[in-house]
TrEMBL record:
Residues 239-273 form the FPG-type domain. Its cofactor is Zn(2+). One of its GO terms (biological process) is base-excision repair. Binds 1 zinc ion per subunit. This is Formamidopyrimidine-DNA glycosylase. Involved in base excision repair of DNA damaged by oxidation or by mutagenic agents. Acts as DNA glycosylase that recognizes and removes damaged bases. Has a preference for oxidized purines, such as 7,8-dihydro-8-oxoguanine (8-oxoG). Has AP (apurinic/apyrimidinic) lyase activity and introduces nicks in the DNA strand. Cleaves the DNA backbone by beta-delta elimination to generate a single-strand break at the site of the removed base with both 3'- and 5'-phosphates. InterPro entries: DNA_glyclase_Znf_dom_DNA_BS, FPG_cat, FPG_Glyclase, FPG_N, H2TH_FPG, Ribosomal_uS13-like_H2TH, Znf_DNA_glyclase/AP_lyase, Znf_FPG/IleRS. Keywords: DNA damage, DNA repair, DNA-binding, Glycosidase, Hydrolase, Lyase, Metal-binding, Multifunctional enzyme, Zinc, Zinc-finger.
Length: 273
């Protein structure tokens, strides 16, 4: 599943092909993804200039003067930039046609989304899908103090509090496991038992982990966006994620896996207390 770093790398990949350009049209090859495509999307966008390509959590926000196109990649979606006229394949459900190229969305499982938020409906941050989101982990609002303050009454395990996304977005299963490892915090620790000093380590670890993943993705950006390249998400080296039974890279103890709220959590019982 695309996580925040993949979405950010995607944003950086498509941005130079979109910003400042005028939409020639859209092609829809299905009635919708997770939700139906907006009615009259082609008429809404044709002839309109793309002003911005932003991101909020895992939502890409393509900004126009009259509203915002909200794109979510779901479980299996990805975007590529291709020459206009490139024949579509089975799971290519949506094209945004811009200046002789298309931004093509492929989504085999159709859990993704393409939605329209009109300017007259207010700020896009107030959209139903966006307004409950926590702060951006790489933004200025994210801090150890925020984590500390917002967890004083939360006894749930820290891993699940991170995954909930209402304090900070984008710390999905991989990055929660990795960040907790780097901070030396056991994923089962009740969030309200963690003090400010340990949250300082955790906030730094979250920022570092996500920034490193984005940088890694950036270095593979060319393949990632290539017309004929495999759009698969970039491979990374993890400390604990998906390494059950393998030796911890720091102490050599076998990495352990547990289930927390249906999701696997990976940690080192020796390095994380
Ligand atoms: Zn260890």
């Amino acid at each position: 599943m695309p996580e925040l770093p993949e979405v950010e790398v995607t944003r950086r990949g498509v941005a130079p092909h979109l910003e400042g350009r005028v939409v020639a049209g859209v092609t829809l090859r299905h009635s919708g993804l997770r939700w139906p495509f907006p009615q009259g999307l082609g008429e809404l966008l044709r002839g309109q200039r793309i002003r911005t390509t932003g991101r909020r959590g895992k939502y890409l926000l393509i900004g126009f003067d009259h509203g915002t196109l909200i794109v979510h990649l779901g479980m299996s979606g990805h975007l590529r930039i291709l020459p206009a006229g490139t024949p579509a394949e089975k799971h290519d459900h949506f094209d945004l046609i811009v200046d002789g190229q298309v931004m093509r969305m492929t989504d085999p499982r159709r859990f993704g989304a393409v939605l329209w938020h009109a300017k007259e409906d207010g700020l896009v941050d107030e959209h139903l899908l966006l307004r409950g989101l926590g702060v951006e982990p790489l933004g200025e609002a994210f801090s150890a103090g925020l984590l500390y303050r917002m967890t004083r009454r939360r006894s749930a395990p820290i891993k699940q509090v991170l995954l909930a996304g209402d304090i900070v977005v984008g710390v999905g299963n991989i990055y929660a496991s990795e960040s907790l490892f780097k901070a030396g915090i056991n994923p089962r620790t009740p969030a309200h038992r963690i003090g400010l000093a340990r949250y300082e380590k955790l906030a730094a670890a979250i920022r570092e982990t996500l920034a490193a993943a984005i940088e890694k993705g950036g270095s593979t950006l060319r393949d990632f966006m290539a017309a004929d390249g495999q759009p698969g998400y970039f491979q990374q080296t993890y400390f604990v994620y998906d390494r059950t039974g393998e030796p911890c890279r720091i102490c050599g103890a076998p990495v352990r896996a547990i289930k927390q709220g249906q999701r696997s959590t990976f940690y080192c019982p020796n390095c994380q207390k």
